[in-house]
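Mods, move this if it's the wrong board.
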Amino acid sequence: MKFFLYVNPQTPGPESDAEVIRRTTDHVLLADRSGFDAVCLTEHQFTDYNTYGDAFMYAAYLAPQLKRATIILTAAVPALHNPMALAQKANLLDQLSEGKAIIGLATGGSPTEFKGMGRDPSRRRGLMEQVVDILYDAWSLKPGDSPLQYETEHDHGEVHNRIMPAPFRKSHPRLGRASTSEDGMLYAAKQGWPWFFGRYMPAEAGQLLIRYEEALRQAGHSDDVIKECLEWTLMQKIVYVADTDEQAFADLREPLKLYGDIFKIAYPSDSPKDMSLDSGNTQPKMGVRAIDTDQFVTRAMIVGSPETVVARLKEYESAGIRNFTACLYFGNLSPEKLDHSMRLFTERVMPQFQRVDPI
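Not the wrong board. Structure tokens:
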């Protein structure tokens, strides 16, 4: 099992943004030195749920500073972007990372975010697929080709030359699919992309990974494509480590309260419970909301002493999880608690799964 760091820091308010971003950057660079193989960024707006907001800009800032870790966007939301602007951002990040970055695409997202960007959240799946189709057309555009005319429900234009810069990789940047639903998993398999997911319990995750690999083979992808997909498919959960189980759960009270309060802003009580998922307006099988604290801790988190966390992670390793993505900074954890949790995770948890060579 390899370990990735998921970076989605909440903020208690505008007066804290600068400190949260500074602390997050320190956290990322420490993770890179401590043996994490990837750093995973995501995008959220308007809700204090993600302090840095623009994943592409933050990734471009981090990429030259990372010595070991791959940059992964988990995820960008195509429905919230102009297709040409998204193609350009993706190409530039591909250049800055020398082809190592992976850009996970997702439907999104909080109704608050969609409304803020002038989008209809009920159309999120269709909007994503529209933009993805246009991205492929944009990446194939060469000097001398006929102009590319494109149109979505929100944008239209005519492009008379190539996207600049060109991608570092031959055809387009590496893509993935971030989704907490089975439909999203099947979409990833059809496209030949790695799948980024979370919140499933070990047996559920293992079964879905088997189905994902079967779907990759049924789609007719080459062995090399299947190998790369499986190499980068990841699962994410929030992780908190303390000296004892009792201390860990006691420490969670305030961070989880802030996390739940922000969730209420992002997902108002009159919006569908699964607005961030792909399954229409029905509650997904693995759905869990941050305001349902007990279920959230059980399904979305791994909490406890180093020994407890190791035991939980061993269950996922046995289920076939190759890449575990840990969100260690959440709910505006204090620097002391964050540093202690990070130290316990890197020094007493990670070495139980891999040989870590700090740099």
